[in-house]
Amino acid sequence: MTGRSSFLIVANRLPVDRTIEPDGTASWRRSPGGLVTAIAPVMQRRHGAWAGWHGAPNEKLAPFEQDGMNLIPVPLSGREVELYYEGFSNATLWPLYHDVVAPPIFDREMWETYRAVNERFANAAADAAEKGAVVWVQDYQLQLVPAMLRRLRPDLRIGFFLHIPFPPTELFWRLPWRKDLVEGLLGADLVGFQLPGGASNFRRLCRRLLGLPYKGNEIFLDDRVVTTQAFPISVDFGQLDSLVRDPQIMARAKEIRVELGDPEHVLLGVDRLDYTKGIGQRLEAFGELLKDGRLAPNEAVFVQIATPSRERVEEYKRLRDDIELQVGRINGEHAQLGYQPVQYFHQSYDHAELAALYLAADVMVVTPLRDGMNLVAKEYVSCHHDLHGALVLSEFAGAADELRQAYLVNPYDVEDVKRQMLAAMRATPHELARRMRTMRRRVATYDVDRWASEFLNALETPASQTSTRRSASWRSG
Ligand code: ADQ
Asked: What molecular functions are annotated in GO for this chain (predicted)?
């Protein structure tokens, strides 16, 4: 790697995964995902760099280059993975920011490790950024980095984006380290959220906790202004739209339906196996529809794909057991020879297979109890140029703000979920097309490129010049 960069991403993980070839040599492959796709062109244009953990504990690696990106591995020990990542990030902040749907753990050692690891990321960024560089810090694992980095390098332009919801003051208040976290974020020039509600929760918190005044999107510190704003993240619509037009994917979608026994309705859930995603709630609703006889035997198959996630965290182990028990019960009660109503896969899939599944599904069921955005909902919409297909979507997913033509549900209300799942299955083709057309227009316009470029434009333009125009552009969408 040569020299310092004028554009830097700082994220918990590097955008690459290591694969071991049959002959034992290791190579790096770009990880799938919208963030890297959206940012890659900017990286290439600006000689960008990305600082993040490379995924293996207790290993120090030198910076290396991949796909035109300079990658700066930040090392973590096994103990740090446990306390900073699985602990403070995923057992404290994750549940607290998601409406406390599981009890957060407040542990001082976890906090100390979180602080120390954030310091390491800030140092790595400070070393890699050239004078006046733009640095974009990602997500809840690194909320202290903006202030730490500003202390080291006041010349930088620093942005932060939170991918998960920002909670209301009443919940955030419980955090023993609430002041440190808020001051950490205020080190940024621009703090981005998925929804306007997250941004306003943050502004209110700053006033109540630190006595800071704000007006519109801007929070006033003694010597500078911090802009807070919503930038709803999205997917690579164009890429998905052309992928599902590929004859191979279309053939695979047909084949999937045949493999499922050609039922009248294929319902689909695709999630990381996480307690915020409401997987149990949707399976309960589907099981009751079978039990009540409102779905005829053999009429519908529910395919639930649950990507393994955070498997060493206690809550996640319990969740896996609960879901697998529930699937077993429903199938035990309603299966017949050659018909299994719930098909459950605890596996990851590649891009193409996932696209074929989206295309094969008549009803996509997305029922999180709380979700920052939910890209699965937008991916499903991007895959249905046929205008067939219905989206059942939780009101508590960020995506519900934009996808108003989905069958919106309160996932805590099992009758509501049942009703909307049935309505989606019974809708006329004309009704489905009407809803799908509007949702597709929205996702096509506000795709992930637009998300990244709007954030970066806002970050690179001084606050007072643009705040009014920017908020107007989001509202008008
Ligand atoms: P996540 O909680 O991970 O993201 P989501 O937005 O749905 O949730 O993204 C999941 C991604 O993983 C999707 O792109 C999906 O295609 C992929 N995926 C899921 N299951 C898979 C499987 N079995 N095999 C392969 N791929 C699979 C967090 C926040 C969200 C926010 C995103 C982006 O919790 O609210 O939308 O970040 O900001």
From this structure: alpha,alpha-trehalose-phosphate synthase (UDP-forming) activity; trehalose-phosphatase activity
Answer whether 375 contacts ligand 1 (Cβ < 6 A): yes
Task: Establish whether residue 69 lines the binding site of ligand 1, counting it when its CB lies within 6 angstroms of any ligand atom.
Answer: no
Q: How far is the CA of 407 from the centre of ligand 1 (A)?
A: 20
**Which domains does the chain possess?**
5-230 (3.40.50.2000), 237-445 (3.40.50.2000)
Q: Is the beta carbon of 198 within 6 A of some atom in ligand 1? A: no
- Among 93, 176, 186, 105, residue whose Cα is nearest residue 144: 186
Distance CA 87, CA 105 (A): 8
| Contact 307 CB / ligand 1 (< 6 Å) | yes
Could you tell me whether strands 214-215 and 5-13 are parallel, antiparallel, or unpaired per DSSP bridges?
unpaired
Is the CB of 346 within 6 Å of ligand 1?
Answer: no
Residue 338: HSE in the Cβ half-sphere, 13 Å Cα cutoff: 6
pLDDT tens for each residue of the chain, 477 residues long: 458 999 999 999 999 988 888 888 888 988 876 677 778 777 877 779 999 999 999 999 999 998 888 999 999 999 999 999 999 999 999 999 999 999 999 999 999 999 999 999 999 999 999 999 999 999 999 999 999 999 999 999 999 999 999 999 999 999 999 999 999 999 999 999 999 999 999 999 999 999 999 999 999 999 999 999 999 999 999 999 999 999 999 999 999 999 999 999 999 999 999 999 999 999 999 999 999 999 998 999 999 999 988 888 888 999 999 999 999 999 999 999 999 999 999 998 989 999 999 999 999 999 999 999 999 999 999 999 999 999 999 999 999 999 999 999 999 999 999 999 999 999 999 999 999 999 999 999 999 999 999 999 999 987 665 444 344 333 332
Spatial separation of the C-alpha atoms in residues 2 and 24, rounded to whole Å = 29
Q: How far is the CA of 9 from the centre of ligand 1 (A)?
A: 20
Q: Is 367 in the pocket of ligand 1 (CB under 6 A)?
A: no
